[in-house]
Design goal:
Two copies of one chain form a homodimer.
Chain A lengths: L2 H10 L10 E3 L6 E3 L5 E11 L10 H19 L2 E11 L4 H18 L2 E9 L3 E11 L14 E4 L5 H9 L7 H12 L5 H7 L6 E3 L4 H12 L2 E5 L7 H6 L1 H10 L6 E5 L4 H7 L4 E7 L3 E5 L17
Parallel strand pairs in A: 4-5, 9-12
Antiparallel strand pairs in A: 1-2, 3-6, 4-6, 7-10, 7-11, 8-10, 9-11
Helix pairs in contact in A: 2-3, 2-6, 4-5
Amino acid sequence: MHEFELIRQIFRDAGYARPQGAVAHSIGDDCALLNVPTGQQLAVSTDSLLEGVHFPAGTDSFLLGQRALAVAVSDLAAMGATPIAFTLALSLPQADVDWLRGFSRGLEVMAHKTAITLVGGDTTRGPLNIGLTVMGTVPAGQALLRSTAQPGQQLWVSGPLGAAAAALRVLDGSCVIDETTSAALLASYWTPEPQLRLGQWLLGRGAAVLDVSDGLLADAGHLATESGVQVVIEQALVPVSSAASVLSAEQALSWALTGGDDYQLVFSLSADQAVALQEQFPAASRIGYVCTGQGVLLLDGQGQVVGVERAGYQHF
Amino acid sequence: MHEFELIRQIFRDAGYARPQGAVAHSIGDDCALLNVPTGQQLAVSTDSLLEGVHFPAGTDSFLLGQRALAVAVSDLAAMGATPIAFTLALSLPQADVDWLRGFSRGLEVMAHKTAITLVGGDTTRGPLNIGLTVMGTVPAGQALLRSTAQPGQQLWVSGPLGAAAAALRVLDGSCVIDETTSAALLASYWTPEPQLRLGQWLLGRGAAVLDVSDGLLADAGHLATESGVQVVIEQALVPVSSAASVLSAEQALSWALTGGDDYQLVFSLSADQAVALQEQFPAASRIGYVCTGQGVLLLDGQGQVVGVERAGYQHF
């Protein structure tokens, strides 16, 4: 089967590749065409997932399709954007139709959940590498940035952390636990939920935002650097995944602080928005505050500085 | 050196990554932000280039940067779009600073030539894989498609073909020729010129267009299929690269018909536009015509059907 037939049969004919909404023209020409309404800007982000780096070799392709798209769409959530379209650059060692069908179904489930449409791509033979570029719209001048945190704001996270890091230990066999906990951890890992509704709610509320992909401390550090502020995190307030805690409470806290991969949002917000936030998003937790200075301080229960490691996953 | 520093030092600080024109916000947040003026649509296309598939192992990174971006921007040219921004998803085996600087300079030269800005990316450790997503703007509803060819139109190509295929034989050592010819072929291969001015000129003129990436016959076949027409190509009219012809006239014609990689535009156009076209674009050649039917017919000097092979490079 040659490249064009492969793409046409499996991706082009898929339900999530039909032009709708802002997508004026989809797969089949040299470019796709998108409509960006007056008063909106286009938000765009690119992610690559490599076998052996971002996911274990032999991963089920359905799970991979779901997760790859969720991870990419999370960047749109972090800017407060509404998803419209994505492109797929896929390298794979051979044209395995079963693998491709599973992957396509995984993409389809997440595309449906996040209301995004496949508009183009490129398939080549090579080591498994999934490149996704996601696009969305956001009201002009209102996109959520990392650089707008102000001293005096509170620091929040959208939900519990640490489950994805724990799941990776289950996947690589370094942690062995009961089936129920294992299933909960793996579900968190394979289907992270892009925080689109929260991102859109935060528009116009003065928040500085990013998604937790490298680990809470590392990502809070990015927010501090870009905003020119200090971020203080109270360790006791950090919400730790209950499933991860089954393994070891101490270990789970460490994963929550440095593990990454959970794709919750971390954001600054002024105190007068806190009640409205908690009404709308009961899973969100206040974990600290923003003050003048630089870097990230992690405080223990006695208000002592525990310190900050250089954290998060580094590719080089 | 870790990922963030690597990206910041080499790509973020590069001249071609400074927000300008339609780029409202560039590298540094979860997404870049683009302005799409009222009355315009966004055109978007993704390409991957893999070592050993799309370019020989050990290729000079400056040449690679130039060519990778030119190939991607060619898709914008084929739709009549004006480039605004691109993202880079780069996998490479190690963080080789010299390699990265060369690659970045290559991108910079082509970004300057085509007036496009780097707005984001993702760098990971893995087999060398260059993923580029390019974005541009095009007047709403006017983008050039493959599906609008009409019986009675002429078929044109923007310039000579076959040099890139010949260059690949020089690169892999299967053809040995004099230095002058070799230099001309390699220049064509490493710096294809995206036909942006021609694409923009064709807007509103009823042309069906695509770029020659898979080979003239294969790409003319895509145009025929998408338009529901037959395309007739007169072999004697196909412009063959003079440098490629030095090797062998017969072989050069074959490369021109099936070689691909030249990134000229092939397009249909009504006869009454032909004079204006040739005044503006003297390198363009009429190579045949469009009629009712399907597929591609290749005719020899006597008007006999030479036939059509299933041509172009197939990844699977």
